[in-house]
Amino acid sequence: MSEPQSEASRIVGERIRATRLKLGLSQEDIADLAEMHVTNVGKIERGQANPTLSTLVSLAGALNVDAAEWIVNLTAAMLPERTHTVTAADLIRERHRLAR
């Protein structure tokens, strides 16, 4: 089995799966409702795919939930490809320091 794309994609996938199971629906059910292929649903639920905003909104619409529930408390640190650790607050603080 393939590893998750990232910690963030794993968490989102788990949250989508939990929503689906809570409603008693199959992957096939939500794939049909969201107008997507069932293999994509499975990959998303396993964290093996990074769903686009359109895909998240489509799945949320099919499950009648707010997509924000699936991404709450995710951080940039959960993305392995992120190379910067500087935030906007750090940049602003440094600019103010240099302007003195």
Automatic annotation (TrEMBL):
Record organism: Subtercola frigoramans
Domain HTH cro/C1-type, residue spans? 16-70
- Bilayer-crossing residues are none
Q: Which PROSITE patterns match?
A: HTH_CROC1
Report keywords, A-Z.
DNA-binding, Transcription, Transcription regulation
User: What InterPro entries does UniProt report for this protein, alphabetically?
Assistant: Cro/C1-type_HTH, Lambda_DNA-bd_dom_sf, TransReg_Diox_bact_type
**Zinc as a keyword?**
no
Name of the protein this chain belongs to: Transcriptional regulator with XRE-family HTH domain
